[in-house]
Design goal:
Layout lengths: L1 E3 L1 H9 L6 H14 L2 E3 L5 H32 L15 H11 L3 H34 L1 H6 L7 H11 L10 H5 L4 E6 L2 E7 L5 H16 L6 H13 L1 H22 L13
Antiparallel strand pairs: 1-2, 3-4
Helix pairs in contact: 3-5, 3-7, 4-5, 5-7, 7-9, 9-11, 10-11
């Protein structure tokens, strides 16, 4: 399957004298013959199913966050402020706080009863699907190898597998950074030549997960590794934000190479393959 650049096609077709469905079809066919197209990878059924599980998990988390935000906002009108929520089973402490805050007020109990029930159901279902995702990561050999990288957990590894699907379609491992929108944009014309911010093309969700993994590696992982040392030197030279983006790109490249080579992460230089 091929895909023609929409902006380029629009400009070319707009230059034609007469516009009709037939002339547009002829124009698109001529564009395809000239080579103004790129191959589009069709994701496998396994990749689509994996993305479906991860998307359902993310949606449940967002619903839970929306409910908690709405509850906190509604309680402000009554001068009630809930405290932080403990990381307990299915966030029961949030419902306990809410129940204690509205106890004795029949109107508030009636208003928030439905939200409490929905919140409990969403949290229980979210916990169940999260357990399935964790087990899936353990049962997938590739995911287990990817999670050997510091900062990379089951969600990041499975999301990367679902996003890339077929690692053989990348000629070089470094091409993955551009595919995920983690490389700088460049503009060159005559004497002008500058590099801007990252392109942010591709899967935004995967890019966000890699950014979070890089942040964890830099700020929370204490065990030394060549990757950690490289990231910390980059923080000292370029600042935290740029270092995190560069480290996210580096993580994507390392994950691609591990996928190709069938290896695991090398914590020391002695472990690196010759």
């Amino acid at each position: 399957m091929v895909c023609i650049d929409a902006r380029a096609a629009h400009k070319v077709l707009s230059a034609r004298m007469n516009k009709s469905d037939k002339s547009d079809a002829v124009g698109l066919a001529q564009l395809a013959l000239t080579g103004w197209y790129g191959a589009v990878h069709i994701k496998s059924e396994a990749s689509d199913q994996l993305r479906l599980i991860l998307s359902a998990r993310e949606r449940l988390i967002r619903i839970r966050m929306d409910i908690e935000g709405q509850v906190r906002g509604l309680l402000k009108a009554y001068g009630i402020r809930l405290g932080p929520v403990n990381a307990g089973y299915s966030r029961k402490s949030f419902r306990d706080q809410l129940g204690a805050a509205i106890r004795g007020d029949r109107s508030l109990e009636m208003i928030f009863a439905s939200l409490i029930n929905v919140h409990e159901t969403v949290c229980l279902e979210g916990t169940a699907i999260d357990a399935k995702v964790q087990q899936l990561a353990k049962d997938t050999p590739l995911a287990r190898r990817l999670t050997s990288i510091p900062g990379v957990g089951p969600i990041v590894s499975l999301s990367f597998i679902a996003t890339i699907d077929d690692v053989a379609r990348f000629r070089k491992a470094t091409d993955v950074g551009a595919y995920l929108g983690l490389t700088p944009r460049r503009y060159q014309s005559g004497e002008t030549d500058w590099s801007g911010r990252i392109s942010k093309r591709g899967d935004g969700g995967m890019r966000k997960l890699l950014y979070e993994a890089a942040n964890i590696l830099i700020q929370r992982v204490s065990r030394f590794s060549p990757l950690k040392a490289w990231a910390m030197r980059l923080v000292a030279r370029r600042g935290m934000k740029k270092a995190i983006v560069a480290t996210a790109r580096k993580l994507a490249v390392i994950m691609t190479r591990i996928w190709r080579d069938g290896t695991t992460f090398a914590w020391t230089k002695e472990e690196l393959p010759a």
